Amino acid sequence: MTNVETLIVGAGISGLATAASVGRGADLLVLERDLEPGGYCKTVKQDGFVWDYSGHFFHFKKPDIEAWLKARMPGQTVRTVQKQSFVSYAGGRVDFPFQKNIHQLPQAEFIDCLHDLYFARLGGQAPAPETNFKEMLYARFGRAIAEKFLIPYNEKLYATDLAGLDRDAMGRFFPHADVTDIIRNMRQPDNATYNATFTYPEGGAIEYVNALLREVEPSALKLGEALTGIDLNQRVARTTRGEYRYQRLVTSAPFPKLLELCGVPFDPATYTWNQVLVFNLGFDTKGPNDLHWLYVPDRARSFYRVGFYDNIFDGPRMSLYVELGFPRDATIDVAAERARVLKDLAAEGIVTTQRLVSEHSVVMNPAYVHITTASLREVARVKGELAAKGVHSIGRYGGWTYCSIEDNIIEARALMTALGLAKAWPMKG
Description:
By secondary structure, the chain is α/β, with parallel strands linked by helices. It contains 11 helices and 18 strands. It has 3 domains: 158 residues, FAD/NAD(P)-binding domain (3-Layer(bba) Sandwich); 88 residues, protoporphyrinogen ix oxidase, domain 3, CATH 1.10.3110; 91 residues, Alpha-Beta Plaits (2-Layer Sandwich), CATH 3.30.70. Helix content is 30%, strand content 23%. Helix 3 packs across helix 4.
């Protein structure tokens, strides 16, 4: 039995930000089941290409947090980029977000979108219900906009019926726009979204992980050690290597997994999610050079989004990440999906004469959690009960939410501050 004041489970951004908040010299341990830290912020460097497990283009609301991280990346070039993103539509491109750029559609489709938008919002009809995400899309944007982009794209991403999601499932990350915004955008383009400007380090997402690791004692990080159970009453955590008696435990493990480990009864139907298969693809020559993200709502295409790493640092060879969504219980045939992806990239005109020279793939499971009315209620209730017993669940998966990497850092800092453990560091979050 090892005694420790603060036990942190998970060496991703949330866990490492928690440890960094407490600082070196504190009585803490970070347990990570994987053999390297980073969680989904790992980076693959292969054949001269730099890829992440998925597209992590970083956007910060708080300059002090970004500056703090950059200061811990000695010698690392970090580029700030104005995002260029488009929607693939009917063989062409529409500026993102789609709902603010319907005037770029063919005239008949533009009229359909504008007509349905007007009567959804201003036509004198009784307000449509918004009890779930799909109803919200119809009520705020009308049938044409919803069915041309918002519904097919998000159903491909989440791999589920949007009627099962909470109306605010994407929170501040959904690009809302009212009729005035959409009409004004026809003459005064303003496509700014929460990530209109992003930053990216030359060494990949792992550089943000390494920045946090600089504030953690190497001896406090235990890799290849998985949590197997938690005794809430005795405040004892069991792992594949031993037992730890803690005063407080902070975990970013997926919330339903945490409940299993704690022996807390729950309804599995409350917590659902998707899987995302990511292909990182390197080609011998350059492809399109004027975009960073391409959103693909066409259900005939296998992927929902394509990102271009090479257009961040002006690389001479096309470097892509390609994302495909699947239900949580799907069996994924990676080889078959690879063949579909290459065919669809050619059909989209992204790959023409380029030759594939390097590749990597990873399945993220869970990837996007399904935020529902029931999950919001249950997570809030059970998190409170666990906190009363010294267990604090944070992060995208620990909080069963939709958030950014910066949000993870802010949440970890706020928790340690509330517990009276945060050291002084220049983060105001």
